[in-house]
Amino acid sequence: MKKEDKLKYYNWSFGDRYDGWRVRKVDALFSVSPFIMTKRADSEVFFALKIPVDIIESFVREHKKEMPGLSIMDVVITSFVRLISQRPYLNRFIVWNKIFARNHVSFSIAIKRSMTIDGEETVIKPYYLPSDTLHDVVRKTHLELLNNQQVGQENSSDTISKFMGYLPDFLLRSVVYCIKKLDTIGLMPKFFFEASPFHTSVFLTNLGSIGIESIFHHLYEFGTCSVFAAMGKKTTKKTVNNDGTVSKTKTIELKFVVDERICDGFYFATAMRLLEKILSDPSALLFPPEQVIVDEGVGKKRIDK
Description:
CATH class: Alpha Beta
Distance between the termini: 15 Å
Order of helices and strands: EEHEHHEEEEEHHHHEEEHE
Shape: globular
Mean pLDDT: 86
Largest sheet: 7 strands, mixed
Helix content: 25-40%
CATH architecture: 2-Layer Sandwich
């Protein structure tokens, strides 16, 4: 995590983690539910959202000169960052039956280094600020892509995975067990946290880049990721109008799997409506949000630059 992407602390309280603040101001139902639904697999909720892409494609063409390499995925990522700035509960996570508010915004993005069946696959994890604009997100994301997209390159996640892959089974089980237990009490070494794609705000996969539809992908028990998003390919839908004419609409389907323990269904529903609104007018992403909403569950513990 770069210094510029860290959030400033007001104070630290007992029970906080280095990657999140303990949420103490929460309804009784939500303080109890992590003890009843102890696993993310017990708590998965599924959302699907179809977004028209004609406006987004036009926006991308208009701004590609000032932001080389700008893509629909960049707009989608920035929309998620903007959504978190307005719906901070989406950046919560559950560890050891406790609710935490993440003290940073990061995305784990699955990429292939070469588009072949046996091509190398890796995950990048850029960090953002809730106040970031599209320019900021494009710069940070593309820098991570540039540093990780060449065949043969290795990032910290690749290095640790390769090292652990050399361990004999009995030793690997012990190492993984210890890492999980240390993570449970918030003492997992930070270099594991930095390398782990499972400790992130959102895990995103762009299946449209390989020409298939989006899927509902499960959440991982290891780590702190509470939102998994899959982006599918562009599809064209024909609609017969009242006057008998036929109109075509291009859409992309976004599918989400979320941990229902972090907030209630109404909050998720308003978040999806807000995401639709953001994507319907991406020009607002060129500017910082008017206000960054701080998770009131942790009090005023942070201030964004």
